[in-house]
Design goal:
single chain; 302 residues; mainly alpha
């Protein structure tokens, strides 16, 4: 009788399991927050006013952290870039919240996957990182996925889809600025300045649409603000605990959660084009992230 020489499968590292769990939780909480925001935006509160209160409640979370960490966390010489980041971030959020009221939740989640691809495109242009063959291929495939979802018809362009693509483009620009700021500033500093700048800025576009908010609306937005901050923290924990290659594919669950919440709460059924296009966009983004990391590791070894 011959001996079985098959090697046992390598177990998944417990740390990777924890990282994946954090990412699953982050994706679920983030999309749940989007559902809350959409709900409030359908109760006669304009999305611009929703954006203001969302950022106001985020400040309520950030300020105690700043106080506990000391005013030193606010020390920076890059106030101009911090301001540009806040303006772009706010503009992206305004468009995204408007888009949530115009498109199914799953479609909105799928189109957010475009942001990393826009970041690659903008970094290649403005940071002169260049267009390598792998980047060109990923961009072509990713933007093809966008066309699958949007299915553009020159005779009747979908306003909601255009708004969400614009939000993803602006968020891609924010990702580029964050990359530049990370060279000299800590994550705590950039996060603190983002929160402190965005709430006052968000008041300006909200004023023309202002209506006295109800306690019901404020309660939902307070919860959304807390959960939104937690989702960002959970994603940070996931990326800190596990490798990007293991964690980022889990982010595709945002499309799944969007479909489930959209069906359960808003009676939305995403079509096959949303699933297909979302998978194409997400796949190209993850593949490019993996390839870039492999190349960077090889360059460090060499």
């Amino acid at each position: 009788m011959s001996e079985d020489t098959t090697l046992p499968a390598s177990p998944i590292h417990p740390q990777t399991v924890v990282a994946i769990a954090w990412m699953v939780l982050a994706s679920l909480v983030a999309v749940t927050t989007h559902g809350m925001i959409r709900h409030v935006a359908t109760t006669d509160m304009h999305p611009f006013q929703v954006t203001f209160f969302y950022n106001l409640f985020t400040i309520a979370i950030i300020v105690p952290l700043v106080v506990r960490g000391g005013v030193g966390v606010l020390r920076t010489r890059r106030h101009g870039m911090m301001f540009v980041r806040a303006v772009l971030h706010l503009s992206s959020m305004l468009l995204f919240f408007v888009g949530l009221t115009l498109m199914p939740l799953a479609t909105a989640s799928a189109l957010t996957f475009l942001a990393p691809l826009f970041a690659v495109l903008l970094a290649a242009i403005f940071l002169r990182e260049g267009f390598t063959p792998r980047r060109v291929v990923a961009l072509i495939i990713g933007f093809s996925g966008m066309l699958i979802i949007v299915r553009p018809d020159p005779a009747s362009l979908d306003q909601g889809a255009l708004v969400l693509v614009g939000a993803a483009l602006l968020w891609g620009a924010v990702l580029v600025i964050i990359k530049v700021l990370s060279r000299t500033e800590s994550s705590a500093t950039t996060t603190a300045w983002m929160a402190l700048m965005m709430a006052p800025l968000a008041l300006l576009p909200a004023i023309p649409y202002w209506a006295p908010p109800s306690l019901y609306q404020l309660g939902w937005l307070a919860l959304a603000g807390v959960l939104g901050a937690f989702a960002q923290w959970a994603m940070t924990q996931a990326l800190k605990t596990g490798s990007t290659n293991a964690v980022m594919p889990i982010d595709f669950l945002r499309l799944v959660w969007g479909a489930l919440i959209g069906l359960a709460v808003f009676d939305e059924i995403p079509d096959i084009f949303t699933w297909l296009g979302g998978a194409v966009i997400f796949g190209s983004s993850v593949w490019l992230t993996w390839r870039e990391r492999q190349v960077n590791l090889k360059e460090q070894v060499d």
